[in-house]
Specification:
Layout (H helix, E strand, L loop, with lengths): L1 H16 L2 H18 L5 H10 L1 H16 L3 H5 L4 H30 L6 H25 L3 H23 L15 H13 L7 H31 L2 H5 L4
Helix pairs in contact: 1-6, 2-3, 2-6, 3-6, 3-9, 4-7, 6-7, 6-10, 7-9, 7-10, 8-9, 9-10
Length: about 240
Amino acid sequence: MKRFGGIIKNDFKNFRQYNILQTVVIISILFALSMVFIPSIEPLLFVYVTVFILPVILLSVSIYIENEEKTLFPLAMADCNCQEIILAKMTSAIIMMFIPFILYIIIMYAVLGMTFNFIMFFLVYFLASLIHIVVGIVLAIISKSSQIMGASYIAYIVIFSVMPIFYSESLIPTFFQYVLIVSPAYLSGLLFQEVMFVFSNVSTILVVLAIVLQIAYIGLLTYFVIRPYFKSYLFYRVNGKGDQS
């Protein structure tokens, strides 16, 4: 447990050092203020951008920089197992994602007077954040260079994040929703819609499918991608492939 807490502490040290924490705070404040002063934009869209895009980019950038600057090597030498590091990094990212969550809840409840089930919103936000954190870690693992990472961002954001937002704004035909189930962002958006607008036209089957598929994606990506490759990716120099001994 002490090592687990040490990894989280190290993560937040890196978040501050790389201005990731500051970026999250600034974006959260700007989005919260926009909810108040730009009423023409649906508040849920700011939540979408925060959950669908922010953790993917910021977490993968953080891991990529940590790898390049060797800031996680002390953790490798401390004999932390891979599962412990993965869980701790996910926990760090989840904690950071609740900075915008707190601001948005205050604005939506106290200022905008919106009414919705807080517990359900919390659970959907947590699940959506977790799956996009997992996606961010996966992108970091598969990105062996900044060019590959940039291309991965563009592909993921355009195909898997922007398209579901367009669909939520009725800019894409309804039949396309069954194609979009491969997108974690679309599945998360369905659940947000159901929580915020209780009388939405989303079928019960699709809601259940959204929950099951998100949990399945988290499990599959963690087991088959993150677990076997995460530690070797971060610590490849420790294992004799670089200048560390």
